[in-house]
Specification:
This protein is of the alpha+beta class and about 150 residues long. The chain has helices at about 10-35, 85-90, 130-140; strands at about 40-45, 50-55, 55-65, 65-70, 80, 95-100, 105, 110-115, 120, 125. The strands form 3 sheets. A 5-stranded antiparallel beta sheet has the order 5-4-3-7-6. A 3-stranded antiparallel beta sheet has the order 8-9-10, with no helix packed on it. Strands 1-2 form a two-stranded antiparallel sheet.
Length: about 150
């Protein structure tokens, strides 16, 4: 709730509440546009905050209330206490895609898709669940050079 009105409703109070709601949604829109332009995010890991560059992320895998962030620059994944949903909301939607209940992948890192619909990031195979298969196919179709 952004505001509330008491009966009997006074028109000027109604307009004030509508104006407040418009300002709120404008602020959310501006915030979302700013998030798309972000190049990194601070993520809490083992008592510290690490600035993770989105370009360095290969994929994210989930394990209950933890996510493992697999980076190109590090052998071992980074572990943080987040849900997949929270991680998905943190990552720019135009550069990352949820492809499975337990996987989010960097779209620019996809090197191939096999006959079963699973995707590959080099030698790394990422399963694509039936729930997300249409979105993955739509992305692949939109990025075909020739048809």
């Amino acid at each position: 709730a952004i505001d509330y009105l008491l009966k009997p409703i006074i028109y000027s109070k109604f307009l004030e509440a509508v104006s407040k709601a418009e300002r709120w949604f404008d602020m959310l829109q501006t915030s979302a546009e700013g998030a798309r332009e972000m190049k990194s995010a601070f993520i809490r890991m083992e008592g510290e905050f690490r600035n993770i560059d989105f370009e360095d992320i290969l994929y994210v895998s989930g394990m209950k209330d933890y996510v493992l962030i697999h980076l190109e620059s590090e052998k071992e994944p980074l572990v943080t206490h987040l849900t997949m949903k929270a991680m998905e909301e943190m990552l720019p939607g135009d550069r990352f895609m949820r492809v499975h209940r337990s996987y989010i992948t960097a779209l620019s890192k996809i090197t191939s898709v096999d006959a079963y619909g699973d995707i590959f990031l080099g030698e790394i195979a990422i399963p694509v669940s039936e729930t997300y298969r249409k979105d993955v196919y739509r992305y692949i179709q939109s990025h075909l050079l020739s048809r």
